[in-house]
Amino acid sequence: MTIEASISLKSETSPSIGRERIKLLQAVAREGSITAGAKAMGLSYKAAWDALDAMANLFGQPLLVTRAGGASGGGAVLTPTGLKVIEAFARMEAEMARVVRLLEPDLAGSGVSPLNLMAGFLMKTSARNALRGVVTHIEADQLQAEVAVQVSQDTVIYAHVTNASLRELGLCVGREAIVLIKAPFVMVALDEPGLKVSARNAIAGVALRCETSPLSAEVIIDIGDGKTLAAHITAHSAQALKIEPGVRLRALFDSAHVILAID
After folding, report:
1. Residue 145 pLDDT > 80, yes or no?
2. CB neighbourhood size of 165 (10 A)
3. Which of 80, 82, 94, 107 counts the most CB atoms within 10 A of its CB?
């Protein structure tokens, strides 16, 4: 049996960020638009956008530059970061394939396959939002700590973790961390003057998209630097707030609903 190495960098509720999502990025660049790239990959426009948002959040930089308009839904080209991500992914897969070939003889007869071994090194999460950032401040008491993670130039997300988790993760100021927030934990409010909320995190942004069904809605909020937050709210709430692209919003969530991870 031929064993093929496959890299999986992270995961959300949709399939993990691996070869298929990199192929989507390549298809968008090749076809010149997200609509055409999604069609080439057999994906819906929404599924393509979700995958591209997840990649931008993960890598911390915009991977595409888009322009609105046109019969095909506007154009899209890769940023220098997008090109580097594709190149780096190809190199990682080639290196992983080499490692797997080296491991096969050593694992023969052990009952452990190279695929089982590699799977143990890959992190997966069901959180809809996964944003990379840098720890800028830590305040701790006897039991817990509040960790501030800057995920974009103007956005800091606060998380409450136990001191044991703080030590286990090795968190310190200046270290990179990944912020995980489930979309149902994110509430949405209009960003109006004088808005006061009790949520520790009240992230300002602009509505990019609002997909609704009879009962629920998914709101994608641009929080700057090519990063987004997804919120799952009721369709009634989306209608009451009159959410549409361009509307200024606040994404609200408690610090206890934020999970931190490291590479």
Report:
1. yes
2. 16
3. 82
One domain, residues 167 and 241: no
Between CA 29 and CA 43 the distance in angstroms is 15
Q: Which residues lie below 8 Å from residue 169, measured CB to CB, with a gap of 6+?
A: 161, 177, 260, 261, 262
Task: Quote the domain boundaries for residue 45.
Answer: 1-124
List C-alpha distances in Å: 102 to 89, 91, 113.
20, 17, 12
Q: Are 41 and 47 in contact (CB under 8 A)?
A: no
- Rounded to an integer, the average pLDDT of 149-158 is 93
pLDDT of residue 2: 45
> What is the pLDDT of the chain when averaged over all its residues?
81
Greatest C-alpha distance within the chain: 67
CATH number at residue 157: 2.40.50.100
Average pLDDT over residues 33-55: 87
End-to-end CA distance of the chain: 31
pTM here is: 0.63
